[in-house]
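User: Predict the complex.
Assistant: Input components as received:
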Amino acid sequence: MADVIWGLATSHVPSIGAAMDRGKTEDPNWKDLFDGYAPAREWLAEHKPDVAIVVYNDHANGLDLDIIPTFGIGTADSYTVADEGYGPRQVPDVIGDPDLSLHLLESLVDEGFDLTVFQELEVDHGLTVPLSVWTPDPGDAWPCPVVPILVNVIQYPQPTASRCYALGQALGRAISSYRDDVTVGILGTGGMSHQLAGSRAGFINPEFDAMWLEKIQTDPAALAALSREELIRQAGSEGIELIMWLIMRGAMNPQVTKVHSHYFLPASNTAAGIALLDNRPA
Amino acid sequence: MTTATAPTTEGTPMSTPETGGRLNVPGTPIFDGQTSRRGLRLNKMLMSFRAAENRDRFSDDEAAYCTEFGLAPEQTQAVLDRDWTAMIDLGGSIFYVYKLAMMDGRSMQYLGGVFTGMTEEEFQAELRAGGRRDG
């Protein structure tokens, strides 16, 4: 049986990756963000899992609008880093774990979550920036194989927060029933509050974000009760990405320990948050 | 028997009112299914800009490239005019529209300024001051 040992919730803003790729982490506009990552990175370096599951969304790079799967899972041996327009990020390609992917898929479909299967997938900043938040200097390879889980957060109707939380709970059961004794880290990505378009562009809601950062640990069911409209109203039209944190949280134990959290703004147009949760019994 | 038809937007209102649809959040375009239907060809064209050769072909003759992708005339005009607000109104997804902005060397903060009637510097200053609030 596999065990989730930690959950890492983090924004996946492309400019965070760009700041790292261009050596700007000491820049005054960025330093506080990266200083805020440091305690989480140190802890994560000492708690390397055998495999990671990254819950993320694509941004017009690996997928277009021809097909819009509400939920998807990658089952490939590896995932190429996408060229988002001006050359791919100079980070390692992502090694997959198809055996675990196929086990999770079967288990989730049996529970009524009919995920779309990606046998080929180019992964964009939505997946690689969280890996960089975790591991700033991966060298030739990321710390472990990765199973990508994709969520449509771009086109309304996005899945509800409660459905994401329920998917996470089913994912937790699926992980528990895996044949191999492996440790799992799970990343929920996106957010925090932000809105890119419309006359409300630039909207940020620190009070909502603070509430979310607290309750993702202590009361995720309350977050799962928020409607799509409430999320868009309170977190902005792109802040609805936060529903992906609930998939991570659902896969964890009811009681988790907070290792570290940090909040920063702005990362380009976005409030950026990180919450590292230890899933092992205290 | 079905007949293949050329892309047409006849009878489809092109504009996407910010307050339309099932959700009403002031100042907030909702990229929903109807919007995505209207914007499909525009977004497909914007998606093509991932590849350098497509960016070059677009730059050589922007209007012809828009025609090749079957954009509606008002969508083509919005692209040629770099009317970012109109592109969103006509079904562009911000993540796709941003690919054209990147080609022009424009940032997401620049676009934010356009959408809110500010310069890029003013918009960025508001973000650094903690972001914009409702009301």
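Chain A touches chain B at residues 29, 59-61, 64-66, 68, 82-86, 154-157, 193, 195-206, 228-229, 232-233, 236-238, 265-266, 268-269, 271 (CB under 8 Å).
Let me know if you want any component modeled separately.
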